[in-house]
Amino acid sequence: MSDNEQSDWRNSTIDAAETREHPETAEAVQAIERLRGSIDNVDTAIVMLLAERFKYTARIGQWKARAGFAPADNEREHRQIARLRTLAEQAGLDPDIAESYHTFVVSESKTRHERIAAQS
Amino acid sequence: MSDNEQSDWRNSTIDAAETREHPETAEAVQAIERLRGSIDNVDTAIVMLLAERFKYTARIGQWKARAGFAPADNEREHRQIARLRTLAEQAGLDPDIAESYHTFVVSESKTRHERIAAQS
Question: Which residue stretches does the UniProt record annotate as biased composition, category Polar residues (chains A, B) (predicted)?
Fold first, then answer.
């Protein structure tokens, strides 16, 4: 990413003259940039964890196929959702977001398994 | 969660007699349980990180409202998607999953902001 590209957002929102006239705008821009840096760090960590998670689910898929177990396990899914909702509440996150996260990863796993099955 | 509930999956899949007759099934069950433990740990970490992420986006929303900035920033979103796709490739994760993750968090943020706006 070029420096020019990185400063696009700042340039498109405020300019130097406006910042001099409105120091509170400059304060907001700085705060938003700091928070966006933290969001990027969180996203980096989550993408790394998702990479590990999908390695684990791929290995579970292989073990299940080898042992002749069914791919889906609804009881396990319900227990996972309940656990994640409780964790979310404790961490100050809307439990619906934790459940949406679970729906997202499970549906991605299924899509992935179907794609792999279709290729083999 | 009760102990009874935790062992439901094992009971529903194989029983002790079957395990004695088929040691390879027991091996698969043990491997799957170990991997599921790792998945649960990853999910715990991700839910904690999502809790922090939504605190950050809520604060950005407040700063933007105060400074009169537009809530959406399409350029920033495109840069984030490109960055996450690259990170995913480096980590051995399907880049489409990283993009789906981004779509998921952004749409949850928007839903949340709309809900907050509707309440105020």
Answer: 1-14
Burial bucket for residue B116 (CB in 10 Å: 0-12, 13-18, 19+): exposed
**Contact: B43, A53; criterion CB under 8 Å:** yes
Pick among A55, A97, A104, A108 to test the B interface (most B CBs inside 10 A) = A97
**Listed ranges A11-25, B34-48, B96-110; the one with the highest mean pLDDT:** B34-48
Contact at CB, A28 and B1, closer than 8 angstroms? no
Report domain extents, chain B: 1-53, 72-120
Beta-carbon contacts of A83 under 8 Å, excluding residues fewer than 6 positions away, are B1, B40, B43
> Are B101 and A44 a contacting pair at CB < 8 A?
no
Classify the complex by whether its ipTM is higher than 0.95, answering yes or no: no
